[in-house]
Design goal:
142 residues; alpha+beta; 6-stranded mixed sheet; 5 helices; 6 strands; 23% strand
């Protein structure tokens, strides 16, 4: 875990573990949606290592796997890399799977979608780089 702390630039203390437990992780790897179990106390990197997708010796997939979270309000945040960034490719992959994410996690049409996160030093919630509005604004819901 210490290796990933250095890569993320985040110390995995109890405050961070509490945050991790409060959200639900998902990722899109090899064009397939994966949803983590609820209340896990660790990062995407630890999850990916447990799945055998990355290791301390080879973590290049952290820049390729689109990942994100559903927060305690049901809002979606998605990003890529250790820097929590977004680009056109990350957006394309995410929005191609949005319908499946909404259905599998039973998200409300009024939930909001945010792309990218801006790391903060404080304990506050990190601001998003981009706000896409509500799910219903980005998807035809059946």
């Amino acid at each position: 875990m210490e290796f990933f702390e250095k890569k993320y630039g985040i110390k995995e203390d109890e405050r961070v573990r509490t945050f991790h437990r409060s959200r639900r992780m998902f990722c899109i790897h090899q064009n397939k949606l994966f949803i983590a179990e609820p209340s896990l106390p660790y990062s995407h990197a630890v999850w990916f290592e447990k799945e055998g997708w990355i290791s301390k010796e080879n973590d290049k997939l952290m820049d390729k796997i689109v990942r994100g979270i559903i927060d305690e309000f049901g809002d979606i945040y998605f990003y890529g890399g250790y820097d929590f960034n977004i680009n056109n490719e990350i957006e394309r992959i995410f929005f191609n799977h949005l319908n499946e994410i909404v259905k599998q996690l039973k998200l409300k049409a009024t939930a909001r979608i945010f792309g990218g996160l801006i790391k903060q030093e404080s304990c506050s919630k990190w601001p998003s780089r981009k706000n896409y509005g509500q799910i219903k604004d980005n998807l035809y819901l059946e």
